[in-house]
Amino acid sequence: MSARPLERLPTIRAKLGSTIVVAVAVTIVLSYFLIGFALRNSPRDTEAVTALKNARKAVLGRLEPIPAGTMVVRRSAGGAVTIEGSNLQVLPPTFDDGAPHWGVVGANVYASISDPAGGTITVVQRSPSRGFLGRISATLGFLQSVWWQLLAAGLVSAAIALLMARWLARGMTQPLRDMAQAARRMETGDYSTQVHTRSRDEVGQLAEAFNTMSAELEGVERLRRELVANVSHELKTPIAAIRAHLENVLDGVERPDPETLQVMLTQSERLGRLVDQLLDLSRLESGDVPLDRSMVPLGPLVSQVLSEIDVARPGRGVVVTSKVDDDLPPAFADRERVHQVLFNLVDNAVRY
Prior knowledge:
Elements: H1 12-38, H2 42-60, E1 70-75, E2 81-85, E3 101-105, E4 108-114, E5 120-126, H3 131-145, H4 147-187, H5 202-251, H6 258-278, H7 282-285, E6 293-296, H8 298-312, E7 331-334, H9 335-351
Antiparallel strand pairs: 1-2, 1-5, 3-4, 4-5, 6-7
């Protein structure tokens, strides 16, 4: 199926401008025809004047030859009627007051004048402006008589309409162009662009929705970067601890005794748990963060964190000791989350 004419235009401004210009052009044409139809009676006055002139010529005997489509009715003082010229199959009204008369009978126009002998001479002519086709013909005739004035007015109106359409279209489509530019910037990762508009119509609502979407995408991108940084830090810590122990064993600094192997096993288990936690990231979007809460003894947990710090950060010249009371009651919490928080706090304190 071929595209519609407006769909072939490249911009909304061109589509809107073309629509307005076409609408104005159609309105002008219809207005001109209605004006011509309303002013179609002007030829009738001309027809009546022509009939009066011909009647006066007939009284003076100068209407020779009688024009085609013209009937001359001579009525004597005694009432005798004589018809000359074309027989239009109508009889005009009779007047005895001696004054000139004119009017319409059927689709014809007539003019009646008294003659010196006491009778009347009436000229009847066909009127092309009578009847439905006559009205159409009269309308077209009037438009044809003033066509250049109408054409000049139409061209001026179309030019003004085109300028106004371009001005209005520019203001209406400016937010859309801004959104297109912002969308291209989003392709490169820049979500900070906002679309500014004072419009409260559908375009303004679209701009507000676009700004909301841009802000949300910027927040998601920021969370993604923080997540990558945090995950890298969390994975790097147990890997560094395992690597340090392996290097010490290879260099002969440490012996592969059960205690050292247990620390390495603990770090590898923690690394496995971190990987498992990454599988739960999809729940973060819905706010459903899983917590495996139980009664956690804080003393052994702190001692485990400090031992891991000693293994991960040897030779720092920083001594970290635990001063947790033995009678401190267990806490109802997620052991892995608390371990993660304590390790990060102590590790950052030792490093910085």
